[in-house]
Design brief:
With about 110 residues, this protein is α+β, with helices and mostly antiparallel strands. The chain has two helices and five strands. The protein has one domain: 2-Layer Sandwich (HIT family, subunit A). Bound molecules: 2'-deoxyguanosine-5'-monophosphate.
Length: about 110
Amino acid sequence: MSDTLFQKIIDRELPADIVYEDETSLVFRDINPVAPTHLLIIPKKQISMIAEAEEADQELLGHLLIVAGKVARKLGIEDAFRLVVNNGAGAQQTVFHLHIHLIAEREFSWPPG
Ligand code: DGP
């Protein structure tokens, strides 16, 4: 898998507004926010999309959700936020390094678009 923009952010070759980091994950603000708070939660491991994740990634994927809750609490938005994972170009995925969008502080409706 070739390096994506997000690998360059992990490697500090590209700047990003980083709000959380630990050994296996990184959280930074989306460059094109669709809400006042729009974060991207990524594993440091290169996994292109959720459909490419394996059994061995189980703990890592669970960790990303725990990080989502932790960051939401840190920012005081734990009462209302939405997590979105776009899988594949047909679902509007544009960066092929797995990421969870965390969106908050906007009106939400259901079903999503
Ligand atoms: P997706 O469409 O699900 O693949 O989302 C990719 C998101 O990544 C999109 O909302 C814009 C964001 N993005 C793309 N390039 C950069 C970048 O260089 N820096 C940051 N912070 N976000 C980026």
